[in-house]
Give the backbone structure.
Amino acid sequence: MSRCDVVIVDGGGANIASLRFALARLGVDSTLSAEPDRIGRASHVILPGVGAAAGAMRRLRAAGLDRLLPTLNQPVLGICLGMQLLFDASAEGPTDCLGLMRGRAVRLRSAPGKPVPHMGWNTLEPGGESPLLRGAQPGERAYFVHSYALPVGEYTRASTDYGTRFSACVQIRNFHGVQFHPERSGKVGARVLANFLACD
């Protein structure tokens, strides 16, 4: 995997260090950048995110990345908020997003024993073919930290349940997304990142 030229989009996410460590454990160095030319040359692009959709989209627009990202042909992985930004819009703000997939992120509803934000381990239930989930078994658990989510739909490749069922993994063409944090999800997270790096 050392041949991979991985660029992490510098959009102000707070999970950058742990993501870079997770990639390093797989033997892959990564570059943090908000430069369109650098991102365009990468073999693999990761769009992480922690925070609010409206603020994240403002940063992408200011760097011209809202125009660049949808045109990329190399594998792209959106993580957590980064996954939500791949869709049409988010109720958080509200704000328009990148529009690569049809759908709108909505706030999770709190319930007894299920506070929002959702923070913790949940099982992944495959719902379609995805190169990211190659080798994963139904019922494996991943770590989530979020308040907004995408309903299950045509792009869903795995889902999970937290009072309501929502998309945990999505895909369209070369664009992949996971609502959970693979860099904090132990063996299943390492497998997801390794599978992403094997995409071409």
